[in-house]
């Protein structure tokens, strides 16, 4: 089972492209050992309690995998024997359901469904040979979700300790037309440097995901506190009392928040959805929502710093005059939000030219399948030259 005498074992946290370093930092802060960054994943070492804590507390992880078997192979068909040799009867029983997901990274194209089928055959044949019956496949709500990763040289089999993707926090009952993934939202906020030490604004808040994730970061609330279940709760070694202690410990690390978190949207339906989601997350005390058109607003507290993060329409799913819209974003920020730090994500790189401001940072990400840029605009009070001079003097 790849488990050593100390109770530690290797794990893999999957994430979105561009969030690997953010996730690695989260893992280190949480107490992970041997953290190693990959592509869309971070490898680390921990014990069972840390696996529980990682699922509960990581903001930028999609799922936590526990590798249980790794074997050199020379052909794809050997995946059958690899699966057949694993003592599955020690992990699950015939009454359990399972699903297999295969990822194939070979030099010659291979069908991942074929590999998943081979893996499934190896598992069920082992049960048939030893037990006379076999567990059933359930692709929608399996008791055990199994990942098989295959290259030209090796097959690695992992148990998915999360189940449904960890972006499914449990608070979002209602969405708008183009909702942002919760893990991506948390990643944007952490990349932007948001830690809860200023006022925060999402001026195009939609169903409120960025606001909710911002509040949870500010108050250090575990992001998956509202989830109904994790896959590890169906494992043979599941320890409910141990998990409860970990959950209580994480909640005890919550902190007070003395600033404001505000959201605007001009659509009444978006306001209703956002309010519902905020209530589901039990964050009504920390977030205020107003029906306003961002282009008619100005910075609420002119003298105070403001952290702005938003996800404007890209022109992909919501029809807009892109050049005019992004031009108005730039004009509004420049004229009415001086002294703020503004970040937004867009897949429409051409539209950024219409903003009329030069971004101080550009970070490549993906919003779904859309290659996107997270851009930062520093909106100085007075001229940039004066600001730099003052900052130098302060140092």
Can you walk through the features of this model?
The chain is of the alpha/beta class and 395 residues long. It has 10 helices and 15 strands. The protein has 2 domains: 9-160, VC0802-like; 182-224 and 254-394, Rossmann fold (3-Layer(aba) Sandwich), CATH 3.40.50.150. The longest helix is centred in the N-terminal third of the chain and has 20 residues, at 112-131.
Considering the chains and any ligands shown, give keywords for the structure:
single chain; 395 residues; alpha/beta; VC0802-like; Rossmann fold; 2 domains; eight-stranded mixed sheet; seven-stranded mixed sheet; 15 strands; disordered N terminus; disordered C terminus
Task: Provide the fold topology.
Layout lengths: L8 E6 L5 H11 L2 E5 L3 E6 L1 H10 L5 E10 L6 H7 L11 E9 L6 H20 L4 E2 L6 E8 L2 E7 L21 H10 L7 E4 L6 H11 L20 H13 L8 E5 L2 H13 L6 E5 L14 E5 L11 H15 L3 E7 L14 E7 L2 E10 L4 H11 L1
Helix pairs in contact: 2-7, 3-4, 5-6
């Amino acid at each position: 089972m790849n488990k050593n005498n100390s109770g530690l074992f290797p794990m893999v946290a999957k994430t979105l492209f561009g969030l690997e370093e953010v996730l690695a930092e989260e893992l280190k802060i949480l107490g992970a050992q041997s953290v190693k960054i990959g592509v869309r994943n971070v490898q680390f070492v921990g014990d069972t309690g840390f696996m529980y804590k990682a699922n509960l507390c990581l903001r930028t992880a999609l799922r936590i995998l526990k590798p249980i078997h790794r074997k050199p192979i020379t052909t794809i068909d050997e995946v059958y024997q690899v699966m057949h040799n694993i003592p599955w009867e020690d992990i699950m029983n015939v009454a359990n359901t399972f699903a297999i997901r295969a990822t194939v990274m070979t030099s010659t194209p291979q069908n991942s469904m074929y590999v998943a089928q081979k893996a499934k055959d190896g598992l069920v044949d082992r049960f048939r040979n030893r037990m006379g019956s076999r567990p059933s496949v359930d692709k929608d709500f399996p008791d055990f979700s199994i990942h098989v990763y295959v290259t030209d040289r090796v097959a690695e089999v992992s148990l998915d300790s999360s189940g449904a993707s960890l972006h499914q926090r449990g608070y979002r009952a209602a969405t708008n037309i183009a909702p942002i993934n919760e893990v991506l939202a948390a990643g944007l906020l952490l990349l932007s440097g948001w830690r809860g030490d200023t006022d925060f604004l999402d001026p195009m808040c939609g169903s409120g995901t960025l606001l909710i994730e911002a509040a949870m970061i500010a108050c250090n609330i575990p992001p998956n506190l509202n989830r109904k279940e994790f896959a590890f709760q169906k494992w043979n070694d599941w320890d409910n009392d141990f998990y409860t202690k970990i959950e209580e410990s994480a909640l005890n690390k919550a902190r007070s928040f003395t600033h404001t978190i505000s959201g605007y949207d001009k659509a009444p339906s978006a306001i209703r959805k956002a309010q519902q989601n905020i209530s589901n997350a039990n964050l009504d005390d920390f977030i205020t929502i107003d029906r306003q058109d961002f282009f008619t607003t100005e910075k609420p507290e002119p003298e105070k710093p403001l952290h702005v993060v938003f996800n404007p329409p890209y022109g992909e799913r919501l029809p807009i005059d892109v050049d005019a819209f992004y031009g108005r974003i730039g004009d509004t920020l420049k004229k009415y939000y001086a002294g703020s730090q503004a970040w937004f994500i867009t897949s429409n790189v051409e539209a950024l030219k219409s903003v009329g401001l030069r971004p101080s940072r550009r970070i490549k990400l993906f919003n779904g399948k859309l290659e996107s840029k997270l851009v930062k605009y520093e909106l100085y009070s007075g001229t940039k030259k004066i600001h730099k001079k003052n900052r130098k003097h302060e140092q």
